[in-house]
Amino acid sequence: MIHGNRESWLNRVAQRMAPLFESLDAPLPSRVRVAIGFTSRGAKGKAIGECWDNRLSADGHFEIFIRPDLAHAPDAMPAQIAAILAHELVHAAVGIPAGHGKAFKRVALGLGLVGPMRATTPGDAFLAAVAPILHAIGPLPHARLDTAGESTAPKKQATRLLKCECAACGYTVRTARKWLEQAGAPLCPIEGHGPMQHDPLDIIDAPEPED
Prior knowledge:
The chain has about 210 residues and is of the alpha+beta class. The chain is about 30% helix and about 20% strand. The chain has two domains: about 5-135, Metalloproteases ("zincins"), catalytic domain (Zincin-like); about 160-205, no CATH class.
């Protein structure tokens, strides 16, 4: 089966995993949205998945996000994404207020997720249970996003500074063109030397301010 977008694939996986939750007496809520996208802290955050409470949604949906820069190996990605999805679906099933406590742990372990409950990983039982689901649904239409690579966002424009020099003593300063246009040439600090002269060809770029 070929899926045109990632959300379709994710929702099909969630639907196919629903019987696993029902067998654990933790049925999935009827209103759940799943998407691949950065969590609330963005690309610099550490969370690999996030489930938002349905009480925060205008139409009562649990909103799940799975970050797009996971899994270096393409063949490892579907199972990893499914495991993260399962973790976030547990939150939706037991309720966000339950956190990673006893209710969460019971369902997560029942699904075959292992490790610390705040950062579960897929155990053998989970991989065995999800393998036929992934096989039936087909390939995930997604490739890892390299957030460490060079950004295509436009770079900040450096401030261009013009050289101004006192004709009497040679004292020099640099200032932006806008200040020359708005306030005129700077005055030499030595009394009586008056306005300095600027060289329109002597320009340097000031360092960009750090974020």
